[in-house]
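User: Predict the structure for this protein chain, please.
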Amino acid sequence: MILPLNIILPVICLFYQIRTSNSLSWETCNDDEQYITLKNFTMQPDPMKIPGKISIAGSIYVNKSISLPKAEVVVHKKLLIWWKLPCVNTNCMYDLCKLLHLEPSCILHSGYFNFPLTTFEIAYKPLMSFWTSGEYSAKVQLKNNKMNIGCFEFHFSVEA
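Assistant: Here is the predicted structure, written as structure tokens:
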């Protein structure tokens, strides 16, 4: 019995989606010299559950004192292929000084920094859990005066 292509192709894509799904992973996303290097990152629970609590911890190494950069965050969701998700604000750029309440100096001195386990509550209840659940990729580029000083890519799963 020969199955038509319109049945075989979705089945192949579904098995590929299942086979390539994974839990949290992260990596540096450029080979240039970086001022900020991510040394460790953990997230619990893994996969992330929405709604629910998420705890994160990590450590970074700063090889040169710099004023804290802005972070450009681009998120993709996997639905057979990777789709870019719209930004929360119009340009996907976040001011880390304001987010971390480090104004007015906003200087990050060289050395190792540990970020203790911090827990956040995600109260959002998705209307359609099918669209929220799945594999995600987030690329975080740290920029200081338009110069890339760090870049990390995270891959994680969400269950809604």
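The chain has one domain: 22-159.
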